[in-house]
Each structure stands twice: as structure tokens, then as C-alpha cells.
Write a structure and sequence with these properties.
Elements: H1 13-21, H2 29-37, H3 68-76, E1 85-89, H4 95-101, E2 106-111, H5 114-126, E3 132-136, E4 151-154, H6 165-168, E5 175-186, E6 189-200, E7 203-209, E8 217-218, E9 229-232, E10 235-238, H7 247-250
Helix pairs in contact: 1-2, 1-3
């Protein structure tokens, strides 16, 4: 993506969060307050302490701890009221999960790395957050046994700019929304923007919105499902283009 412009990581993330909040009407006061109250350092694993020595900046670590500004804007785009059941694809260390849990009725989250699952469960439990169910598995499959979901959000990038029927079927019929990154793969990352899917009275609208103005990159959503990516030889390719798949290709950790 030739027009990619990297985001400024040096600014304190609360300043970025407050700036992003001005773009929403009404102003998401509760969400801003959660970013002020929930200690991001609580979700930084020891092995990342050198990588993230100053958790007050907007730095992230792909697949584990996303940039706070990214999390804020994506959660804000869900327009949570407090009664929703939310599906989260990609738990990471649980920071975004904690934010979501304080904004909705219940969060069902899926993470493919068992170590991250246990870490996130531990950190959420220490904060007394109980309205969360975290499971190990393929985030692209969703959790049909707990559907329908009022909201769905993914932290890893889709390989296509639309959602297949199996995920659409897990969205509530009346008024539901899905937010996920999507874009083009290059050098181990997906450069792109946000796919927004809205379902109202059974009718579906899917579009890529210019939420971050091509300033961000995301890790691929590793999955054999159509929206995922599969590792082949030396790069990820869209899983929909892979005909002969081997199980170990699906679960390469970036």
C-alpha cells in the first residue's frame, strides 16, 4: 500500500484517545474514562517489558497488545449501549477484552494461543471482571453455540473485504455490527483499514471505511477459513486461494 503513513507512537496514548473521541457524537465519555482507569501495564507480559518500557505511549505489539488508540477507535465504532453480547476475535493479553467487558453485558472471546488464553484469564480475574468467557480456538469460526451476537470485533486483519455467511449468521438479525481490520499483505503485516458490517432486520451492508487514513498495519488473522490467511513458503496468502492445506500451515505464530 503505497500511501501508508505510520502513526506517531511518541504521543501519550490518552491524548490520542481524547482526540479520537472528539470525532464521535455523542462524545463517548464512558469509554474515555475506562482508558483512564484501566491500567494498561497490568496487561503487559514480562517478556514485553523491554519492548514496551513506557506503556503511556501509543506503542503496540502485534498480536499481543494493540495500540490503545486503535483499540479505542474500533471499540467506539461498535457504539455499545451496555446491554449487548459481544464476540471478540483475538483476545491477546486481554486489554481490549477488559475495556469491552465494562461496556457491555457479556464478552465471548476466542484466542488461538493457549498461553495468551491463560494470561488473559488471570489478568481479568485479578481485576474482578467476570462477564467474560475466553476460549481457545480459531477466531474466524466465531462461536455459533453462543450466537447471536449484537456486536463482533476482530483484532487481526481479514484477507478479504467482506464476511462470509457463516459469520453473518452469528450476527443478531435486528441491529448488529461487526468491526474488523482488512487490507493488503506485505512483509508480514496487513496494511489497510476497517471493514464495517451492519445487519438491520436481516439486511446486510458491508463496506471498508477510512477510519485510520492508512496509518496502521495489523497482523493477519491466521485461519483456514475464507476470511483468514495461511502461511505458504515465505509469506501469508489468503486462505480462500489455498487449495491443498496442511494443518501446521494454519497455526504459525507471528
Amino acid at each position: 500500500m503505497t500511501n501508508f503513513r505510520p502513526v506517531d507512537h511518541t504521543r501519550p496514548f490518552l491524548d490520542i484517545v481524547r482526540e479520537f473521541a472528539q470525532q464521535f457524537k455523542p462524545y463517548p465519555e464512558k469509554l474515555v474514562k475506562l482508558f483512564e482507569e484501566i491500567d494498561r501495564a497490568h496487561f503487559v507480559p514480562e517478556e514485553l517489558s523491554d519492548f514496551l518500557p513506557d506503556v503511556s505511549t501509543n506503542k503496540g505489539r502485534a498480536g499481543l497488545l494493540s495500540q490503545p488508540g486503535v483499540i479505542f477507535k474500533m471499540v467506539a465504532l461498535l457504539f455499545l449501549k451496555g446491554h449487548e453480547v459481544v464476540y471478540e476475535g483475538g483476545t491477546g493479553t486481554g486489554y481490549q477484552t477488559a475495556i469491552l467487558a465494562r461496556m457491555c453485558k457479556h464478552v465471548y472471546s476466542v484466542e488461538r494461543d493457549p498461553k495468551r488464553v491463560e494470561f488473559a484469564k488471570d489478568r481479568l480475574a485479578k481485576l474482578g471482571i467476570e462477564n467474560v468467557t475466553i476460549m481457545q480456538g480459531d477466531a474466524a469460526e466465531g462461536l455459533p453455540q453462543y450466537a447471536p451476537f449484537d456486536r463482533m470485533i476482530f483484532g487481526c486483519a481479514f484477507s478479504q473485504d467482506h464476511v462470509e455467511q457463516d459469520l453473518l449468521d452469528q450476527m443478531a438479525e435486528q441491529q448488529s455490527r461487526l468491526i474488523a481490520p482488512t487490507g493488503q499483505y506485505r512483509d508480514g503485516r496487513v496494511y489497510g483499514d476497517i471493514l464495517r458490517v451492519e445487519k438491520r432486520r436481516g439486511e446486510v451492508k458491508q463496506e471498508v471505511i477510512n477510519a485510520f487514513a492508512n496509518t496502521l498495519y495489523f497482523v493477519p488473522l491466521v485461519s483456514p477459513r475464507p476470511v483468514g490467511w495461511t502461511w505458504q513458503k515465505d509469506r501469508y496468502v489468503p486462505s480462500s486461494q489455498v487449495h491443498q492445506r496442511k494443518w501446521w500451515q494454519f497455526w504459525r505464530v507471528s
